[in-house]
Amino acid sequence: MKTMIRKIDEINIDKQVIQEAGEILKDGGLVAFPTETVYGLGADALNEEAAAKTYAAKGRPSDNPLIVHIAELEALKKIAEKIPLSAIRLAESFWPGPLTMIFDKSEAVPYGTTGGLNTVAVRMPNNEIARELIRAAGGYVSAPSANTSGRPSPTTAEHVREDLDGKIDMILDGGSVEIGLESTILDMTVIPPMILRPGAITAEMMEPVIGNVSIDETVMGKETEQAPKAPGMKYRHYAPKAKLLIVEGNIKEEVLAIRQLCYEGMRNGKKVGIIATSETLRYYTNGVIKNIGSRENEKTIARNLYAVLREFDEAGVDIIFSESFAVGGIGSAIMNRLEKAAGHLCISAAKVAGRQKYRRIVFVSDTDTCRGPMAAELLRQKELYQEYVIDSRGMVVLFPEPVNQKAEAVMKSAQMTMAGHTAEAFSESEIDAEILLLTMNESQKKKISAEYGEDIAVYTMTEFVGDDGEILNPYGKPLSSYGECMKKLSGLIDKLTEKLNSFTKK
Ligand code: AMP
Ligand code: MG
């Protein structure tokens, strides 16, 4: 089947295109169209065969019911029974909009549309293209998200084309959607009404209108064995191809843990993706990093979520690490979709941090021109199980000078260089709980302890790896002494590597 793609502008709707699309739906065909939430795959909701086509095109399990979309409140009476007053109040407040309500179904609605249920889900979308199309199609359009079942929902016409090209009659391309997450689903057949799927319309928004609203506990539940009340919520929906892991903690912990997990993943030869936010973007350096939006305005995160998951698919990443988001407001819907995309795989940031004894290692020598920078460079060449920031500093640095030439010469002969290094003095402001200071000799260590307190982690290099003695300064001696010094350092760095790696599980 050839899929026609028609551009359409919500501000200036081409009636003829709508007419054409409406005819296709009336004839039992399939048309994808934009709504304010995600793109929907439209079919005549009162036509059983059209429903069957919808399931086939999406590869959707047929027990997963479709939402019926209407354009006028009047239309509700024909498909729903026992409509409570509270539903009318909600409709008046939130329709057209991203709220789906579930009612007992009338005879008019075929079981093909409701996945065999005696109830029907109904929504009036707040997108002019959608409502015009619904009118042109006769008033009742079933429209699940226009993606292949299990893939992230489509938020652009291009996403729809990726999944359904050749499987449906037409795509109406109305640009990017506004909200980006599917509607809130509220079951009106129970008292109090129950949220089966969180969305942009939250319990806090509905309660002033109708009083108490409950929430299906499986929505956010990670370990519950109970089946969700919306059949579709039991599937590992919204999933990217890569494994997705949500890292939970406070934001600083999350960033540090993701950095470490990314480092570990890359060491194991994995292509790693990171879901970052505008606020944290600059703290990541490795991996395929995507900005999902701003924490200041979570709507931007909702809008970008599915597109970002699809971009990771295109980038061919093996594993994605995501920061987590506050539950509350649209944040609940964001976390619900992320958790489903992750198949509920979460990891505590604190747990990752617990494996990391130090995060920064600083080699301290006198002038930071020879032994310190050599040790630092030697350690950088090692295969470490954890990501460390490795630096060197001097006790007395008068000028920001380059390294000693003989030191550079011996390092060069071993295919290493310290060309980028400039001597820098150690300063108190660098001290934090995550720093490990390794000095060349006892007197440097004593001086640091005396000056900055006993609490800071400072050891001589030899002491830290369980050896005796000190690392002598070769300054003023022939080149061979520099070679000796490098050899000594090299042996110590091997032991140091082993010790550091023993802190981290492989
Ligand atoms: P989608 O159309 O892809 O947004 O998915 C529709 C969602 O609505 C699925 O999770 C369905 O299980 C849910 N749904 C539709 N109709 C009903 C219903 N009658 N009762 C409970 N959940 C429903
Ligand atoms: Mg869907």
What is the 3D form?
A: elongated
Number of beta-strand segments: 21
- Which regions are unreliable across 5 or more consecutive residues at pLDDT < 50? none
Question: What's the average pLDDT?
Answer: 94
**How much is the radius of gyration in Å?**
31 Å
Identify every distinct bound molecule in the structure, by name, code or SMILES: adenosine monophosphate, magnesium ion
Q: Considering DSSP H and I runs of 4 or more, what fraction of the residues is helical?
A: 25-40%
Seen as an oligomer or otherwise, the chain set is: single chain
The biggest sheet, with number of strands, parallel, antiparallel or mixed sense and barrel status, is: 12 strands, mixed
Query: How large a portion of the residues is in β-strands, by DSSP E?
Result: 15-25%
Q: DSSP helix count?
A: 17
Separation of the first and last Cα atoms: 51 Å
Structural class: alpha/beta
Descriptive labels:
506 residues; alpha/beta; 12-stranded mixed β-sheet; 5-stranded parallel β-sheet; 17 helices; binds adenosine monophosphate; binds magnesium ion
What does this structure look like?
With 506 residues, the protein is α/β, with parallel strands linked by helices. Helices cover 35% and strands 17% of the residues. The chain is built from 17 helices and 21 strands. It has helices at residues 15-26, 48-58, 76-79, 85-94, 111-114, 128-136, 157-164, 203-210, 251-267, 298-315, 330-341, 349-354, 371-380, 405-413, 442-452, 461-464, 479-503, and strands spanning 4-7, 31-33, 40-44, 67-69, 80-81, 99-105, 119-123, 141-142, 170-173, 184-187, 194-197, 214-215, 243-248, 272-276, 288-291, 319-322, 346-348, 360-365, 389-394, 435-439, 458-460. The strands form 3 sheets. Strands 1, 2, 3, 4, 5, 6, 7, 8, 9, 10, 11 and 12 form a 12-stranded mixed beta sheet that branches. Helix 8 (203-210) links the parallel strand 11 (194-197) and strand 12. Helix 13 (371-380) crosses helix 17 (479-503) and helix 14 (405-413) crosses helix 17 (479-503). The relative contact order is 0.09. The mean pLDDT is 94. Adenosine monophosphate (AMP) binds at residues 64-67, 102, 114, 117, 119-121, 144-145, 182, 185, 196-197, 230-233.
